[in-house]
Structure prediction request, 177 residues.
Amino acid sequence: MNKTTIALFGLLYCLTSKYAFAQDNMAATENTYGKRAQAVFMELGGNGVTYSFNYDTRFNNRQDGIGGRAGLSYFAVEGNGIFTLPVVVNYLLGKDGRYFEMGLGATYIGFSSSNSTNPDNNSVLFVDGSTVIGTMTFGYRRQPEDGGFLFRVGVSPIFGSGSFIPWYPYIGFGYAF
Prediction:
């Protein structure tokens, strides 16, 4: 692993460990419904590069604040495939189901090719080639406090291996509960 990948995972660990296990007075910070926001959604573009199916949750019993998400995607054309696994720590800032979303994460990308000399060419973990890229998220999220249709749109800058794509767009649709 290169130094950038190790630094990203270290940052993700520091951010999540501080908030995921913290104890505080929830009575002062609970939302109207007294439960943490959770959602499932499909995202086109963004952290999953092509598309991804994701699970998102807040780390506290709130609709806003710090949380995280993990996703999964697979895309294949003519024997060539790409598998992605985005993991993001994010923060929702706003109220009444309308939020500015910002996040930092990493995405594992695995590649396979029909031209490979590897006998196990259909491996899900893609021994042909893989990489980890850094991702960020800046966008708008509409997530009703009582659950229902979720909508997300924004940009997801991508960086790694000496490259940087600042305006990589995303759009997402799903269900909040």
